[in-house]
Amino acid sequence: MLNRTLLALLLVFLAAFSAAAQSDEQPEDPRTLSYQVCDWGLIVIEHATEQPAIFIDIDSPADYSAVGSAFTVSGTGAGLFEGNVIVEVSAYGGDVLFTEPTVLRAEAVDAVGTWSLDIDLGDVAEATQIFIRAYSESPEDGSTIAFDSLRLNANAEFGLRYVEITNPIFGAGVPSFLMKIGGMAGGAFENNLVIEVRDFATREVLAETFATIQTEDLGGSGAFSAEVDFDAEPGTEIEVVAYHPQVGEGDEIDDVSAVAFAIIDPLAQTYDRILNVRRDDLIMAQVNPCAAAEAEFDNSSIDLLVVNDVFVFETMSMMPLVNLSIQAAGSSVCPAPLRARITNIDNAFDIELYRDASQPVACTMDLAPITQRLSLGTLPNPDYTITVNGQAVE
Predict the structure, then answer these.
(1) 162-264 homologous superfamily
(2) Judging by beta carbons within 10 Å of its beta carbon (0-12, 13-18, 19+), is residue 3 exposed, middle or buried?
(3) CATH architecture of the domain with range 66-154
């Protein structure tokens, strides 16, 4: 079991060495990661941070806000067929109140543009909860290729009561000491929220605190944040619950709440196998991602990337946290999933960085630079060996 002091050292004091050169510090990792602990090992999921080529965003009005019976919806988008955007308004329960198309205005076909549409709901009842959906359809089969949505309180003075947790993201790795929680909320009694951290398996409450919504308006909307400190083993699955407090004595707990799922320091331990995938990988779309990921270790239809350099970074500790930055090369255009599988046998790590070749796809024949960052976890001792795509890292 790692104590808090050791965990803090693992996360703070970083030194590095490399197969090619020495480095004084580990480079900043720009990725957003989440995790899934399986009985055979760990899945590391990388979330895309770049803007997708095809998208629609609603920028105004703000989610959960109050609007009149007539208002304007606007946003941005890109990659839409002929710039088509359809805006649909429905009431709570599903009845469609309004549907009308508009057009994305952009300087070039593939450029990011703006769109807007005036909506008039007529004689809508006071404080009607409505759902706005902006989407674009494929000209080939009519399927939705991009969309965004929000909820509003129509013909109302006050916005909807709500809670959203934005930190941690679903499946994120978090520390049990000084864990930070944040999000947005509105309509709470005296602008206060209750936050609980629970063991996902046992539902035991590990920590409880309060947060204040940052708004000058009573019952207004704004950001909230809090920090908690508790004891939990690395790899423990937890849920973070934020909810509106009960208003009066004897009242039941308010049903306006949000739940986030996270894992305590998943890399603060050792795994026999680790699979790294992207968030949009088909493995993560399966009913049982752990089973699909475990089967991937038997996949022989792989196209290994060309590895140029491997840089290894480890913490200064008797039990080092080891991370890698792999400089590789592969097809510049290839829809096949990029994956990395790590197998650990007695502190000997065999890493394969590859494209899945089990399904026929068209990839270009050129070699473009690809940087892949991986973690081996926290090792029981500093004596280990690494092989990447058949090449020993010395």
Answers:
(1) Immunoglobulins (2.60.40.10)
(2) exposed
(3) Sandwich (2.60)
Contact 184, 235 (CB under 8 A): no
Sketch the domain layout of the chain as residue ranges.
4-51+268-393, 66-154, 162-264
Tell whether pTM > 0.85: no
Continuous segment of H or E residues that includes residue 116: strand 113-120
Q: Which two tokens stand for residue 303?
A: 């196209």
pLDDT single digits (tens) 214-239: 999 888 999 999 999 999 999 999 99
Burial of 220 (0-12, 13-18, 19+ CB in 10 A): middle
Percent of the chain whose pLDDT exceeds 90? 75
Of 372, 387, 371, 265, whose CA–CA distance to 315 is shortest?
265
Give the C-alpha separation, 52 to 389, whole Å.
30
CA 44 to chain centroid, in Å, comes to 11
Give the amino acid at 191: N
Across 91-107, average pLDDT: 92
Per-residue pLDDT tens digits for 339-381: 999 999 999 999 999 999 998 888 998 999 999 999 999 998 8
CA-to-CA distance for 330 and 109, rounded, in angstroms? 28
**In CATH terms, are 66-154 and 162-264 the same topology?**
yes
